[in-house]
Specification:
The complex is a heterodimer of chains A (291) and B (254). By secondary structure, chain A is an all-alpha fold. Helix content of chain A is 74%, strand content 1%. The two termini of chain A are 47 Å apart. With 254 residues, chain B is α/β, with parallel strands linked by helices. Chain B is globular. Chain B starts with a strand and ends in a 5-residue tail after the last helix. Classes of the chains: A mainly alpha (291), B alpha/beta (254).
Chain lengths: 291, 254
């Protein structure tokens, strides 16, 4: 019996292998198409509207002319203020849950709460924000209320991604630390955190996109359709790109198509710019990681 | 006091699993003692009790008495940080931290000193002396800033030993330190241990009968969580008192 010849069984193995590979390839490509299409359509339709006036002027003539500057400013406020609340809270909570908390009923309830928090629709967060921040805490409809609402919405994202990246740090590193008598905090600070930073930043990147793109959560809490002036403090209302996009595409008659697409293009560009910062930091740390 | 370790009726459970049963043993200072026995016999568990590193897994219950250099390490006033400073461990798989060679060696020392008290020259000296002791200095002195994970396994394992030295431990525990090394690396580490034993007390868990024979003065054989036989290695390997010991040593069991 010559054993190096192909048999029927082997042939079917090979053809199955080819099938699996091509299905995987097609799925990957199918994912790529919408992303590319969105960018292309936005670029082609929105590009004509983009000029200095569009970026740096306020809307005029019933929002059918002028620019989107107040909305850009408002979105920046919302992104950074919500990150300012979410990042420390989420990261510290994740550190506690992963490194300090014992596995008991209390922590299990907290875990359950985090998972559920992630599944709540954003309009519900908006109503919560209205009730809790705007009315009960008397912050009014303001950048502060809107940012706090966004932070609550983003908390589960940051907590989950932080916990996952903490878990990804090999146990042997921790053992090595404990073994020379390092305290829990020293182990965390010198070894675990530096090695989980890229993963934590991934969560931050995701929250930036969510904060920038979110419309429902800020609807009742701090964003106005139109404001003739820029916000001066966190207690003012602001405009936001996402909300503005919704307004000019559904609520206002006579807005040129290029304006709508231009606004969307700026929104995506802004998210990319903010994310670039975290991506640069992340890739710096990744390239210095040797395990 | 001639003993580094004295255990009296030590019992250990992981959850409900009884891993060590009534272990009573004295281990002498300034020599190498080997712990042998088939997998799961409790030898690593015993080793990990000695600097209480097993507690981080949670769900560990220890009863009985365990003294290291005359101090009951399970008494409530023991600080785990200072215990582990005195009792260092080298693991089965080399586990250098993903930082530079220099920082690896001095990491433990730094964690026990307030930042204001250490001076660069002092640290440099400690790193050099530790690396000289494990005979890595000549090979590594020009690449101290390289990431420690780029070293070959044998060097990594020696580095893991070196990083204990600036802490001036009294007891060094080794959990199958050579199981991932080749023959040459194994012999190099063993040679090192023989040199270190005048200054430190060493306990080594090993699966290699030959290694136990080569390096240790005393030998402890455990089976299913209990002590079967202990005594001088020479006597145990030539005239074991217990039938199980003989079977294990000759390779009939385990």
């Amino acid at each position: 019996m010559s054993s190096f010849k192909s048999t029927e069984l082997l042939k079917s193995k090979v053809s199955k292998q080819k099938w699996v590979e091509s299905i995987l390839l097609v799925t990957t490509f199918a994912l790529f198409i919408p992303v590319a299409a969105i960018f292309l359509i936005l670029l082609i339709k929105g590009y004509p509207a983009i000029n200095l006036n569009f970026i740096f002027a306020g809307p005029s003539n019933g929002m059918t002319e002028g620019g989107i500057f107040p909305a850009i400013v408002g979105t920046f406020w919302l992104i950074f203020l919500s990150l300012f609340f979410t990042c420390p809270l989420g990261i510290l909570a994740a550190l506690y849950l992963n490194e300090y908390a014992r596995d008991n009923t209390f922590t299990r309830i907290i875990n359950l709460a985090i998972i559920n928090l992630a599944g709540v629709p954003s309009i519900v967060y908006s109503l919560f924000g209205l009730g809790a921040f705007v009315l009960f805490l008397k912050m009014g409809t303001s950048i502060l209320s809107a940012s706090l609402t966004l932070s609550v919405m983003n908390l589960p994202v940051i907590i989950t991604s932080t916990r996952e990246s903490l878990l990804a740090v090999p146990k042997s590193f921790r053992e090595a630390c404990w073994n020379v008598g390092a305290s829990k905090w020293q182990t965390l600070w010198y070894v675990v955190l530096p090695n989980s930073l890229p993963g934590i930043l991934t969560g931050v990147i995701f929250s930036v996109s969510r904060a920038a793109g979110e419309t429902a959560a800020i609807l009742f809490t701090g964003v106005a359709f139109y404001l003739p002036f820029l916000p001066e403090s966190i207690f003012d209302q602001c405009m936001a790109l996402s909300m503005h996009l919704y307004t000019i595409s559904t609520q206002v008659v006579g807005v040129p198509e290029s304006y709508t697409f231009g606004t969307a293009l700026v929104l995506i560009g802004l998210v990319l710019i903010v994310n670039t910062l975290s991506i640069v930091v992340r890739s710096y740390y990744r390239s210095h990681r040797k395990w | 006091m001639n003993f580094a370790i004295q255990a009296f009726e030590l019992n250990l459970w992981y959850g409900t699993f009884h891993a060590i049963t009534d272990l009573t043993i004295d281990i002498k200072k300034h020599q190498i003692t080997s712990l042998i026995g088939p997998s799961g016999c409790g030898k690593s568990s015993f080793l990990k009790c000695l600097n209480r590193i097993n507690e981080r897994g949670g769900n560990v219950t220890v009863k009985g008495k365990l003294e290291v250099f005359g101090q009951d390490i399970y008494s409530s006033d023991i600080s785990l940080e200072s215990l582990r400073k005195e009792v260092g461990m080298v693991f089965q798989k080399p586990n250098p931290l993903p930082i530079s060679i220099y920082e690896n060696v001095i990491f433990g020392y730094k964690t026990h000193m307030p930042k204001s008290t250490y001076r660069k020259g002092d640290l440099d000296e400690k790193v050099e002396s530790a690396l000289r002791t494990v005979r890595l200095w000549d090979q590594l002195k020009d690449r101290l800033n390289d990431n420690a994970l780029t070293l070959q396994l044998e060097m990594q394992q020696k580095l893991c030993l070196a990083r204990l030295l600036p802490l001036k431990p009294k007891l060094i525990l080794l959990d199958e330190p050579c199981s991932t090394l080749d023959t040459k690396g194994t012999l190099a580490v063993e040679e090192l241990l023989l040199e270190l034993k005048s200054s430190y007390s060493i306990v080594i868990v090993t699966h290699s009968m030959a290694q136990a024979r080569r390096v240790s003065e005393d030998c402890i054989f455990m089976y299913l969580g209990t002590l079967v036989e202990s005594g001088s290695t020479k006597q145990m390997f030539t005239l074991p008192k217990n039938k199980q010991t003989m079977n294990y040593i000759e390779g009939i069991m385990g």
